[in-house]
């Protein structure tokens, strides 16, 4: 199935559905499998995205407590959480989502854009191998689930700041799924998972100004019932969220987004990861989903 086929199949017959119709959609949670890496060595010792400021002190103890709160939230929701051993000298390894993409029994390991994070690829590839996957490497840069989000039977793939668009074809071939490329244009939203959240197999939320005109049109075509999030929530990385189809774990500061989620029939759960936000990541960044 080609990307154009996907667009044709999902193209809306009418205009965007009103919120009242969206809210009537029954939401159902399903058990998920996550991998997470403790922020044992987390700090901000370099700046490779607009959120990072080496002059601001980082409280690693607080970061660990906030991360643990997120892990416990997942466990209380009935999800499986496996731990990846952190490596000293890799302070951004806590952002486990960037480690790769695991779907359809296939694993693609990240190839990072910046040398500061290059060592994470080996660590996540080793974890994948221990869990029975044969990690595939791409020739071009890809930053895992930071830019590769599974929605039902397709993969949304970001590019513009980190992942090289040329890697998209490699990834589609490796996992055997159609892929839709989306261009990011605002450097604050340097990964797709900072500007778009997958809520269930047919529903997403996103921040329109983070995308090019063409990509916004594609999103509207594919997801006519998408939730469009305001700047106030996007600016606290509110879209860096994780959903099980009913419960949406999101940054606690994104209160407007929480209201939108509730109106659409989801159950928002706010978690404070403000210390980890200093590195440019939040809920989803810390969560590598292992898709069956």
Automatic annotation (TrEMBL):
Keywords on this record?
Hydrolase, Transferase
What Gene3D superfamilies is this protein classified in? L-arginine/glycine Amidinotransferase, Chain A
Q: What are the boundaries of the region Disordered?
A: 1-30
Q: Does the keyword Transferase apply?
A: yes
Q: Organism's domain of life?
A: Bacteria
One biological process GO term for this chain?
A: L-arginine deiminase pathway
Molecular-function GO terms, alphabetical? arginine deiminase activity; transferase activity
The cross-references to NCBIfam families, in alphabetical order and at most eight, read:
DiMArgaseDdahMtb
User: What name is this protein filed under?
Assistant: Amidinotransferase
């Amino acid at each position: 199935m080609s990307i154009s086929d996907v667009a044709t199949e999902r193209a809306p017959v009418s205009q965007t559905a009103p919120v009242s119709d969206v809210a009537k959609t029954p939401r159902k949670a399903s058990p998920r499998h996550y991998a997470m890496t403790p922020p044992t060595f987390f700090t901000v010792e370099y700046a490779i995205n607009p959120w990072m400021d080496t002059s601001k002190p980082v409280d690693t103890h607080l970061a660990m407590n906030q991360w643990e709160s997120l892990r416990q939230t997942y466990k209380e929701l009935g999800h499986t959480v496996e731990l990846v051993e952190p490596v000293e000298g890799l302070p951004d390894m806590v952002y486990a989502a960037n480690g790769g993409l695991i779907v359809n029994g296939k694993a693609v390991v990240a190839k990072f854009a910046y040398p500061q994070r290059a060592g994470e690829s080996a660590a996540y590839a080793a974890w994948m191998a221990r869990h029975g996957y044969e990690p595939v490497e791409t020739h071009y840069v890809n930053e895992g689930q930071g830019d590769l989000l599974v929605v039902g039977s397709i993969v949304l793939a970001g590019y513009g700041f980190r992942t090289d668009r040329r890697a998209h074809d490699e990834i589609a071939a490796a996992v055997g799924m159609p892929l839709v490329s989306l261009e990011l244009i605002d450097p604050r939203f340097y990964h797709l998972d900072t500007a778009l959240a997958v809520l269930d197999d047919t529903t997403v939320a996103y921040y329109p100004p983070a995308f090019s005109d063409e990509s916004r049109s594609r999103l509207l075509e594919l997801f006519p019932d998408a939730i469009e999030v305001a700047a106030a929530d996007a600016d606290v990385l509110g879209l860096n969220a994780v959903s099980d189809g009913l419960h949406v774990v999101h940054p606690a500061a994104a209160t407007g987004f929480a209201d939108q989620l509730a109106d659409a029939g989801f159950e928002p759960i706010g978690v404070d990861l403000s210390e980890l936000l200093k590195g440019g990541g939040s809920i989803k960044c810390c969560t590598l989903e292992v898709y069956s």
